[in-house]
């Protein structure tokens, strides 16, 4: 980051905007203004749609697209991340609001504000505790399984709306679904099909068509990303012109209050905050992890860097601000960020522009939003989240690493069957447990010398020279309390199988640390070997390991066993 | 174990006694009978003392020394472990019984039986789930800190009894202790000092005296271990002869019912079992971990092996049986096991003999136990647990490994301040968290070649040859979701510092696994390098890692980057 400019580095650490603003050019602005407009065009329908998905009034999605988006632009380290309402956070809010304890609180708007405010505070606390690295403890397979599962939940929730039914909460009760099928409304379905047709046409077909015309890429992106706006415009026009609500009973968004929300602080209520805390923790965690993952994708493409801890601050403040300004919880959105990026955004100026456009829309055009058919929004949501479902990915993962594949599948099924929060918890616990399990079963190899070289390799994998009274064992991990028991058992088993062994050489190429428990075990092993007239030796130990061992009398205890610089030295002397 | 005798291996797996019984000799018996008698002599006062320490009637310690001891002899894999009442389990029972929820249940005898039964069932469940390896997740520093803390708690609890006061529960309230000092009783103190003198004389002085006389070692052990019995005998005689209870107000053990306890099953009560479950889990965990640790000490000395899972079964059944036969929870005792071992025990026959002696004592001599002064038992407990306090050990540990030293100190203080269960939990969480932290900060070194060799070492530690457009990076750990973020940052930082690098070679000597998250990150890194005209290469990759990578198209993606067998090949071609 700004380590090389000591004059303003502190300011720039907290306001990364300073970094790019001082070298901002006209060319940057040309890219940013176009991308900002395109992203704003996407933000309006997404904002309304995701608020409705979360079970909240539409304006909460719009409010979440103004100040929070601008705040992230000032504080965030990603130059292209589009922060605002996102589908995954929306389904998490919906799922939290639907739990009995929370719905018993009443006033779901207030609960949603509390969730956003608490998530923001949690992120800021994590930043304070330098816990940005926590993102590393959710593995990609778990995140992928979670995202697929959440996307499937969203689709299952929105599909009935395409035909005018409310989202069912039937679970595995098939008879229950029949009831919803009866809510079927032809006019709504027609609107939905029209919207889907426009979205799909603009999404893939138009894109490749325009590319064939050799139009500039930003232009292609600009036109093809107008699909959602056009779908909204045309179906709203149809709904208004034919008065479909009164004539055919299709559902519209309804009145969206115009103008800015008044800043509010009336949601501070200890009891409610306590009840909502667990859900807020999950929203904070997922919002943070997904945002950083998305930010890294575009940052890698441009060779920029994301500072995890600063991201926590930026997203934390954005969520506090969304709560105060009457919006829903926010995060970085995948599809919107990709649109912003491919429309040519060069800095967060694009998002500042988008925020201004949203602000203007809310003030002047919110009356126009009332007649948007809900089916159109359902179609937009489905098309937006469909790319997040990666079922085939599970097979790829399984094929490469069985444990990871199982974790991905279990997380996906967990989300679908147990729900959002329990599903991701299950996935995280599973990977941590398997991490500990792997750590307790280190890779150990008995090695021999590859003829005519000084290289020592696994006797099971290579044709090597061995010495019958010499046991060369390479331990491929740090020696800790978690794995030393396994190492001990391995050595004793090997010695029982080969009673003629006189010297054991532990090859420490891969050992960078030996903790107290492991040191005690090595002392015991050495003692046992000496008692039966054998020696324990060490080779290829790294500097820090030897430094640490020299603080103890272990190297003294080893005698006549020795520390050899190279394994070759050990075989020359003992072999 | 018995893998080589397929005929009775299954039987021997479940009854390890079969292994040694079939080759049992007269010589074995000579050792065992002597050790059995000596250990029984220790078991009687310890059994009564530990039951009183736990706040239970004295017979519960005696009952715990009969059937459970015999059960372990049949099922356990250690040939010398003495299972029965132990001090650490006793203080854990006392601490559990003292908590408000549990003391509210009333009938502490029943609660203690439930604790033993539940601990036994938990151990059996752990055995079923093959969780014997769980012992590896409590590091030695945590166990040492816990043991020292528990021993200090026991001493603090028993010290007032030397002077006839009840154990205070004053915590840090000094005024409260004054009240206890007023309970001071001169006769009791005299008895205690007499007992302590005998114990200390027999413990250290007599031992070295007898050794100078060149008596056989078993004889020395036999005589010097009679200290507790002699202390009990002499002080009981004094108490009876001078009628110290009536005349001087000293406390005696009181009536111990004679004969066997009736087997009972009247403690099955779901509500109570639920309330006691958390404490039972801790007792099960500590009883198991401490027993295996002690069993391993003697097993290592004789080159025998402990099978952790079978230990769970043996200790689990022993605890179920102790509950049914009216005893307190049992585990392997450190001092008793060492006495048994050094008195020449060769097999668990010694413990079968001790169990018979205990049984006979309970039937015929329990009347004699009523007049044992409690102060004598307090003296026995203090002398027995004093060697478990290892305060200086913390400094040794800290000096070798700071994190381990802190964990040991925190666990010790946690036990003293927060109590037994919270203290050990704190220690375990601390080590797991530091384990994860270490895992996320792998050791990485930029290496160069040691001149005139084919060896590559850290450029910071050795004088080595380097190539200015070649970056050789050795990663000293498996690549996983937990650490790949760190590796990524490290590489990008290094490349930013050295913009002239053309080829990056990752040396995989220490990498035995690459998980899905890490593979994806490597693909991203490779893509980023290729975009800026650099190549990513791999050297010294192990067989299993290459096998796994070959299942993906990563090696294809690398091109023109290559996989080199040896780092030397890489520098020859790229250097």
The largest β sheet of chain A comes out as: 6 strands, mixed
Structural class of chain A: mainly alpha
Report the C-alpha radius of gyration of chain A, rounded. Answer: 30 Å
Strand content of chain A: 5-15%
Biggest chain contact: A-B, 62 and 62 residues
- In spatial order, strands of the major sheet of chain A run 4-3-5-6-7-8
What's the helical proportion of residues of chain A? 55-70%
**First-last Cα distance of chain A:** 54 Å
Shape of chain A: elongated
The number of helical elements of chain A comes to: 27
Q: Assembly type of the shown chains?
A: homodimer
Q: Give the number of DSSP strands of chain A.
A: 8
The average pLDDT of chain A is: 86
Spans of chain A of at least 5 consecutive residues whose pLDDT stays below 50 are 1-7
Your description of this structure?
Two copies of one chain form a homodimer. Chain A has 575 residues and is mostly helical. In chain A, 63% of the residues lie in helices and 5% in strands. The first copy, chain A, is built from 27 helices and eight strands. Chain A has helices at 9-14, 17-21, 26-53, 59-63, 67-75, 87-98, 100-103, 108-128, 140-162, 174-181, 186-212, 217-224, 227-241, 244-248, 270-302, 308-324, 334-342, 349-364, 374-385, 391-400, 402-418, 420-440, 484-497, 516-531, 543-550, 554-558, 567-574; strands at residues 83-84, 331-332, 444-449, 456-458, 470-475, 503-507, 535-539, 563-564. Chain A has a six-stranded mixed sheet. The longest helix of chain A is centred in the middle third of the chain and has 33 residues, at 270-302. At the A-B interface, helix 20, helix 21, helix 22, helix 23 and helix 24 of A face helix 20, helix 21, helix 22, helix 23 and helix 24 of B.
